[in-house]
C-alpha cells in the first residue's frame, strides 16, 4: 500500500523560511515523480513543485520559482520542500502526492495524497 505523509506545519512571518517534508513508503521510488500542491481557504488546489525521484530533476510553479527548492533523500524516502521568502499568499495546506507523468501540474494526474500540513504566513 502506497502511503505518503507530510510534515512541517508552522506559522512564520513574511520573509521567513520553513521546510516541509514528505515521507513515502510502499512503491518503487525510482519510477515516480513526487509532487507538492497547496490549497488555500476558498481556493482550488494548485501545483507547487515536483521532483523526479530517479534523477532529482525538479520543476516549479511560477509563483514559487526562485523562492522554493525541492530535494529528496533516497535513503530516507523523503522529499524536502524548502520555502524561503515566504509571503502571506503562501498560506495554505500543503499536500504531497505521486505521479508517473513528469512535467504534469494537474492534480488529476497525481495519486496517493498525503494528509496535508498547514503553513501560515502572517505578521
What does the model show?
With 123 residues, this protein is mainly beta. It has no helices and 10 strands. 0% of the residues lie in helices and 47% in strands.
Q: Could you describe the largest sheet, including whether it forms a barrel?
A: 6 strands, mixed
What's the gyration radius in Å?
Answer: 13 Å
**If you average the pLDDT, what whole number results?**
94
Q: Total number of β-strand segments?
A: 10
Strand content: over 45%
Give, in order, the helices and strands. Answer: EEEEEEEEEE
| Structural class determined from secondary elements | mainly beta
Q: Please, how many helices?
A: 0
Give the overall shape: globular
The largest sheet has its strands arranged as 2-10-9-4-5-6
Helix content: under 10%
Counting copies of identical and different chains, the oligomeric state is single chain
Which ranges are low-confidence, i.e. pLDDT below 50, for 5 or more consecutive residues?
A: none
Terminus-to-terminus distance: 41 Å
Amino acid at each position: 500500500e502506497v502511503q505518503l505523509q507530510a510534515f512541517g506545519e508552522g506559522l512564520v512571518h513574511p520573509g521567513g523560511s520553513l521546510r516541509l517534508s514528505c515521507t513515502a513508503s510502499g512503491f518503487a521510488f525510482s519510477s515516480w515523480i513526487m509532487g507538492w500542491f497547496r490549497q488555500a481557504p476558498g481556493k482550488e488546489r494548485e501545483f507547487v513543485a515536483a521532483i523526479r525521484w530517479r534523477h532529482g530533476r525538479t520543476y516549479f510553479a511560477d509563483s514559487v520559482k526562485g523562492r522554493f527548492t525541492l530535494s529528496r533523500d533516497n535513503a530516507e524516502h523523503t522529499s524536502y520542500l524548502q520555502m524561503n521568502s515566504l509571503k502571506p499568499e503562501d498560506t495554505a495546506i500543503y499536500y504531497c502526492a505521486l505521479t508517473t507523468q513528469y512535467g504534469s501540474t494537474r492534480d488529476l494526474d497525481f495519486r496517493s495524497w498525503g494528509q496535508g500540513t498547514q503553513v501560515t504566513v502572517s505578521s
